[in-house]
Design a protein that fits this description.
- 57% of the residues lie in helices and 0% in strands.
- The protein has 174 residues and is mostly helical.
- Helix 2 packs across helix 3.
- The longest helix has 26 residues.
């Protein structure tokens, strides 16, 4: 597969900016790991039962809430959306980058990246590489420099390329 698309003229972040972002991200991860170590030693409340790691349905209920998960399952089972397609207004929109980038969810993606433990599993490598590639595609197709998304897109590409050592995806050192 190809790497990231090059940034349009004037959109590529400087090497200094990229190094600053990686340094800040490293500090965030160190802090997170310190807190993670603390919370690993703390017992869960007695009423919290974690699903089995392979139990996809119960993880959906755990993460989305039982009501939302059951509403989605019943809508799909009743064939409610067969004729008119999926009604995303009722069941929610999937976390597409085009939607996430408009909703200030870049912080959410940043937090997810911060929680990844090194060394990454092959699936995690593949997913963050897809994220960086998609960010480069969005950046290459008509985003204006004033657009606040440029910085967020550059940050995601930078972290994947430089912090997670996917150098072939990193922006050129300019």
């Amino acid at each position: 597969l190809l790497g990231c698309q090059p940034a349009p003229e004037g959109y590529s972040p400087s090497l200094q900016w990229q190094q600053q972002q990686v340094a800040q991200f490293s500090v965030v991860r160190q802090s997170l790991n310190k807190h993670r170590s603390h919370w690993r030693l703390q017992p869960l409340d007695n009423n919290v039962t974690m699903p089995n790691i392979e139990d996809e349905e119960n993880w959906k209920k755990f993460c989305l809430g039982e009501r939302l998960c059951c509403d989605i399952a019943s809508a799909v089972a009743s064939g409610e959306n067969e004729s008119s397609g999926i009604n995303y207004v009722k069941i929610g929109f999937p976390p597409l980058l085009s939607i996430v980038s408009r909703m200030s969810q870049g912080r959410w993606l940043y937090a997810l990246l911060a929680c990844l433990e090194k060394p990454l599993l092959p699936e995690a490598h593949s997913l963050i590489r897809q994220l960086a590639r998609r960010c480069s595609e969005v950046r290459a197709t008509g985003v204006k420099w004033e657009d606040e998304r440029v910085s967020a897109l550059n940050l995601m590409i930078c972290l994947v390329g430089r912090y997670f050592d996917q150098r072939d995806l990193a922006d050129d050192e300019s």
